[in-house]
Amino acid sequence: MDWLTTVDHKKIGILYLIAGGFFFLVGGLEALLIRIQLWKPLNDFVSADTYNELITMHGTTMIFLAAMPMLFALMNAVVPLQIGARDVAFPFVNALGFWTFFFGAVLLNVSWFTSTGAPAAGWTAYAPLSGPAFSTGHGMDYYVLGLQIAGIGTLIGGINFLVTIINMRAPGMTFMRMPMFTWASFITSALILFAFPALAVGLAALMFDRVFDANFFDPNNGGNAVLWEHIFWIFGHPEVYILILPAFGVISEVISTFSRKRLFGYSSMVFATILIGFLGFMVWAHHMFTTGLGPVANALFSIATMLIAVPTGIKIFNWIFTMWGGSIKFTSANLYAVGFIPTFVMGGVTGVMLAAAPADFQYHDTYFVVAHFHYVIVGGLILGIFSGLHYWWPKMFGRVLNETLGKWTFWMFYIGFHLTFFIQHFLGLLGMPRRIWTYLDGLGFNEMNLISTIGAIMMGIGTIMFFLNVVITNAKPQNAADDPWEDGRTLEWTIPSPPPEYNFKQTPLVRGYDAYWKEKMDGHKGMTPAEPIGSIHMPSPSILPFTMSLGLFITGFGLMYSRDWTFITEHIGFYVAGLGLLITFGSMFLRSVYDDHGFHIEPEELEDKGVKA
Amino acid sequence: MMNRWQFFKRLAPLLALMVLVLSACGRADLSALNPQGPVAQEQFGLMKLAFSIMIGVVVIVFALCLFVIVRFRRRKGDKSIPKQVEGSHKLEIIWTVIPIILLIILGVPTVQTVFNLSKDHSNDPDAVKVIVTSHQYWWEFEYPDLGIKTAQELVIPKGKTITIEAKTADVLHSFWVPSLAGKIDTNPGGSTNKMFFSAPKEGVYLGKCAELCGPSHGLMDFKVKSVDDASFDRWAAALQEPVAMPSDPAIAAAFESKCLVCHAVGDKGGPLYPNLTGIGSRDSVGGILINTDDPKYSNEGSTYDNLHRWIENPDDVKPGNLMGKIDLTQQELDGIAKYLSELTLDYEK
Ligand code: HEM
Ligand SMILES: [Cu+2]
C-alpha cells in the first residue's frame, strides 16, 4: 500500500526500475524468440503472424516500456539529489506519471492474451498496414491506446523534470555548475516536451481511424499514409535522442568519477548536448529517404543528419580526454562506461553512413539498420543504464552490487552483444531485409544468423546474471557508505545511502562545479549548509494517481471493445469508457477540492531520522 | 580481465578490415556489395567512400581509447590525485573541425549522387517503361508501351535503361533489387515514385520487398531477368499470343471456373491476381519456390512439384496470402499443375 500511494521521488524511481526491469525481461524474451526463429533458414519455430507480433512488441516494449522507464528510474533517483533538492517540483504529478506509464504498459501487454493477438505492424506502425482495413482484430488498438496512456506519463514526467531542474536547484548551483547527468536529463525532458505531443496527435488520429472510422491515413478516402510516417518520425527521431542523452550523462559522471578527474571540456559538453537535442528535431526525414520525398529534401536531410556527428564527436573525445592523465579504476560501472565508448562510436559511424541518402537506398530496412540501431540503443543506452545502475545502486538501495559478478556479467553481455550485432551489418549488405519471418536457404545468410543467435543467448545469460546479482545483493546488509566509490564528486554522495525521506537535512550551498569534490579538495568534510536546521515540509502520500491511471486503463478497454460488446447492449463499450473517465475525472476533482497541506518533519525528528533509515 | 579487453580492442580494427575483404563477397545476384549495374555501382562507390572514412575514424578512436585505458589505469594503492584539467580550446576546436572536414568530403558526393539518381528517364525514347504494382505478397509488372502485363518476373533487355513507376495496390511495400539498384517505396494513394536502373549483363537478379507489409513480407521475392534484345522482343510477342486451354476438358473446365476468375493466361481470365502466362518458364513459383530439377533445399523442386505444392495449399507456402485454398479434386490438382508447368514461353535462344 505504501508503494501504491508514495509520492517520494526515490521510491518512484524504484518503482520505475522494477517495472522497467520487468519489461526489459519481457522484451528480451521476445528478442530471443525472434533470434531462435532466425537461427536457421526456413525455420518455423513460430508462425509468420506470431513473428510479426514478436518484432512489434519487442521494439515497442524495449523502447517505451523498458528503456524509457529505466532512464526515468535513474532520473528520479538521482536528479533531485544532484541539484540538492528535497524532491521534484510536483511529487503528485510524478506519481501520476509512473502510474499512467504502468497502466499503459499493462494494457499493451494484455493484447498477448486476447484472441486476436498482439499488434503486428512493427513498432513504427506504418499506415495503412496499421489501419482498420489491414490490421483487423484488436492488436493495433492495444498499441494505440496503450501507448497513448503510457505517453501521458512520459510527457508529464518530462515537464516535471524541467520545472524541477529550473526551479529547485540549491543555492549556488548555477546552470553551468550542474552535473552532466542533470544537464542531459534537462535536455531530454525538453525533447520529451516537444516530441511526445506529436506522438499523441498521431496516435489520436490513428485511434480515430480505427475506432471511429475516420480516414486520416486512408488514401482511398482522402487520407494520406505518408502523413503517418512524418508524424511518427517527427516524434520518433527525437525519441532516439531522448533515450541516448541521459546515457551520455551517465557516462560523463561515471568516467569522471572513476578517472578521479573532472570532466574534460565541460562547457563544450553542455553545448554539444544542446546542439544534439536541437538537431535531433531537424533530421526526421532521414528515416524516409526511400519514401520518395525528392532529391532536394533527401539532400538537405542527408547533410543535416551528418552534422549530428560533430557534437557527438566532441563528446567522445572529451570522454577520452577525461580519462587521459587520470587514474582509471575499472569497477563494473566503469567497465560499462568505457565499453560504451567504442561501441557507440561504431553505432555513430554507421549512422553517418546511413545518412548518405543514395547509399541508404541500399541499407534501408535491412539488417544493416538493425545492426546500427542496436549498436546505438543496446551498445549505447543499455550499457549506459547498466553503468548507471551499478554506479548509483548503493545510493538507491544502500548496498553495493557484487563487483566480481558484475564484471563477469559485463563480459558476458558485451561479447554477446558484439557477436549478435556486428555480423548483422554484413547480413544487411548481402541482401537480408529486416522484419522477415524467415529466409530461404542457399542465400549465404545461414552461418551469420546462427552466430547472431548464439550472441543473443549470451546476452540473455548476461541479463540473468545481472538479476541474480540484484537478488544476491538484496540479501546483504544495508551498509553502503555515503560516498562508497570514495571519489564521488557531486551532491548525491554527501548524504546517506539510501537517503532519508527529505534528502538533505539542510540545503547545501554550492560553491562550484563538482560541488562535493571542491569541498573535499578544500579540506572540508561535507557541504556548507545554506540554511539553519528547521522544520521540513513534505507532501502527503495519495492513492489518487493510481486511481486516475486505472480510470484511463478502463477507458481504453471500453473504447477498444465498443464494437464487440454490442451483444450485451448497444454502446456498452462507450459506457465502460465513460465509467473509466468518470473515475479519472472524479479523482482529479477530489484532488482539487481536498486541501492537503502535507506534513512537516520537525527538527527534533531530524536528529534520529537523519541517520540511516 | 585486462588482457581480454586488449585482445578485443585489437580485434576490432581487424574486423573492420573484414569489411574491405567482404566487399568482394556475397552472391552476385543479390549482394549490394557486388553491384551488377551502373546505379548500384554508383551507390556502392558512395558506400566505399563512407566505409573508408569511417574505418579511419574508428581506428583512430579505438587506438586512442586503448592507449588511454592501458596507460592511465590506477595502480594498486594509488591515492594520488590527477591534475583537474578544465579542457583545452585548441584540442576541442581540432575535434570539431576535423569531423566537419570529413563530412564535407562525404557530403559533396552524397548530394551529387542524390541528384544523379533522381534523374527522370521516363521520356527517354530508348528506355523501357515499367509500372510496378506491389500487392500482398506479389509483384505485378506492366509494360504500358508494349501493352503487356506479367507477374513475379521482370524481364528486361540488357543494357537498356529501365524506368520504374512504383505503385501499390494495398499497403506500403518497397521495390528492391540490391545488385542492380537501391530500393524505392510503393506508396498507397495517387503518388507514384520513379526510379531507373539497367543491367548490362544477362542474368537473373534477386529482388525483395523491403517494407513490412504483413505476415509474408519476408517471402515477397521476385526476379529480374536480363536478356538480349532479340529474346526480349520474342518474349514480349509471345506474351501476347493466345494460350491453349488444357487438353483434357475436365481439367480445362476446372481451370476456367476455379482459376481464371482471378488469374489470366493469354487473352483469357481476370486481371486481379498474377498473370500466369508463361509461368512454366519462370524461375520460381510464388517467388520463393525455386524451380530446379536438382532440389537441395526444402523450398526447391521441379516446376511441376512447386506448382502442385503451391496450388494444394498456398497458405502453407505464404501465410496470409489472398489466394486461399482452392477446392480441387486430386485429378484437377495434378492436371492443372501439369498444364501450368508446361505453359512455357520459349523466348531465350
Ligand atoms: C537482448 C538483446 C536484443 C536482441 C537479441 C534483439 C534482437 C532484435 C531482433 C532480431 C530484431 C528484429 C529485427 C527484424 O526482423 O527486423 C529486433 C528489432 C528491434 N529491436 Fe531489438 N534486440 C535486443 C535488444 C533491444 C533493445 C534493448 C532495444 C531498445 C531499447 C531494442 C529495440 C529494437 C527495435 C526498436 C526493433 C525494431 C522492431 C520493429 O521492427 O518494429 N532491441 N531486435
Ligand atoms: Cu511487401
TrEMBL record, chain B:
Keywords attached to this entry: Copper, Electron transport, Heme, Iron, Membrane, Metal-binding, Respiratory chain, Translocase, Transmembrane, Transmembrane helix, Transport
Entry keyword Methyltransferase: no
Cofactors, names only: Cu cation
Subcellular location: Cell membrane; Membrane
Enzyme nomenclature, EC number: 7.1.1.9
Residue stretches in coiled coil: none
Domain Cytochrome oxidase subunit II copper A binding: 125-238
Database matches in InterPro entries: CcO_II, CcO_II-like_C, Copper_CuA, Cupredoxin, CuRO_CcO_Caa3_II, Cyt_c-like_dom, Cyt_c-like_dom_sf, Cyt_c_oxidase_su2
Membrane spanning residue stretches: 51-72, 93-115
GO molecular function: copper ion binding; cytochrome-c oxidase activity; heme binding; oxidoreductase activity
Main location: membrane
A Gene Ontology term for the protein's cellular component: plasma membrane
Topology of this chain in the membrane: Multi-pass membrane protein
Job description of the protein: Subunits I and II form the functional core of the enzyme complex. Electrons originating in cytochrome c are transferred via heme a and Cu(A) to the binuclear center formed by heme a3 and Cu(B).
PANTHER family: CYTOCHROME C OXIDASE SUBUNIT 2 (PTHR22888:SF10), CYTOCHROME C OXIDASE, SUBUNIT II (PTHR22888)
Name of the protein: Cytochrome c oxidase subunit 2
Organism in which the protein naturally occurs: Paenibacillus sp. BIHB 4019
